[in-house]
Amino acid sequence: MDVTTPLSTLVPAAREGDQNAWNAIVDRFLPLVNALVRGYRLAEADGDDVSQTVWLRLVEHLGALREPDALPGWIRTTTRNECLRLLTTRGRVRPVDPQDHGGLDAVEDDIADDDLLAVERRNLLREAMAELPAARRELLLLLLADPPVGYEQISERLGIPIGSIGPTRARALEQLRRTRALRGLGPDLVGGER
Does a cis peptide bond (omega within 30 degrees of 0) precede residue 147? Predict the structure, then answer.
């Protein structure tokens, strides 16, 4: 087995403990993990930690992966989540010189981490919206438009009764929460309980 072997063959073989299948999966997706880690501009040691954690999580969860072709998305999402987790953790721990003026009181939150998290959330939301059917995606975009679009205009544009807009919005939001892009994020990032 090598990196060109179909995932439908590699994943079941790796589940059964085939070392060649595991090696092929790692060889195939390590460049993806490394590229994502580089995008977060982590130190080399932190990037190695993230990579190691991703492969450990894969060992833990490969048995639960129902669709072998979903593996690239799973690896991408897990890598992003681990990078964000690491950045969040790093944001809470700051080296300071106690001899310096202000000492521990001088430590401020790193705005760059917050900006990075916001960008990542927007990217995940874009991916999730792309997974929705066109009609539901269009409804959500109209409801978020600035300046706001009235229900009468939405009804006319989409050809649905005004009374259906609210229930359709609720179904669209629930479907959005269950998209592959947002699966695995906590309720605080998705916007509600599951």
Answer: yes
Could you tell me the CA-to-CA distances from 118 to 77, 108, 112, 123, 144 in Å, in that order? 16, 18, 10, 9, 18
Per DSSP, the residues of 112-167 read HHHHHHHHHHHHHHHHHHHHS-HHHHHHHHHHT-SSPPPHHHHHHHHT--HHHHHH
- Measure the CA dihedral 71/76/77/83, to 10°: 140
Q: Which residues contact 27 (CB under 8 A, 6 or more apart)?
A: 2, 3
Q: Is the CB of residue 52 less than 8 Å from the CB of residue 29? A: no
Instruction: Give the long-range contacts of residues 30-35, CB within 8 A, separation 24 or more.
Output: 32/72, 32/75, 32/76, 32/79, 33/75, 33/79
- pTM of the full predicted structure? 0.49
Question: Along the 194 residues of the chain, how does pLDDT read in single tens digits?
Answer: 777 889 889 999 999 989 999 999 999 999 999 998 988 888 888 999 999 999 999 998 888 888 888 898 899 999 999 998 888 877 655 555 556 655 555 445 544 556 666 777 777 888 888 899 999 999 999 998 888 889 999 999 999 999 999 999 999 999 988 888 887 565 444 444 43
